[in-house]
Fold:
Amino acid sequence: QVQLVESGGGLVQPGGSLRLSCAASGFTFSTYYMSWVRQAPGEQRALVASVTRSGRTNITDSVKGRFTISRDNAKNTVTLQMNNLSPADTAVYYCNAVDLGVGHQFWGQGTQVTVSS
Structure:
């Protein structure tokens, strides 16, 4: 049974930090391209950051310099470190796993991040 379980969301003041984690199980994590995607109220899902099987990362411009993505293939986890948060970062954050070679894609249930004073 495939599972992606996100944790670490919550309420934080502007300028604060949160660390999101995604624990994966039920598939060969190391072969999957992992991403964090967020969806703000009334908007479509948007890519935040991704990390390849080998650990190469890509960060969307709006969070570059503030967010960092990393993966631990030994622990089957992917982490999003978010610093200097602003209200514009308020969204539900989803963990996503893709294996383009076999055409498989999995989603977590999402974790709410709210940035507000």
The mean pLDDT is 96. The CA atoms of residues 62 and 104 lie 28 Å apart.
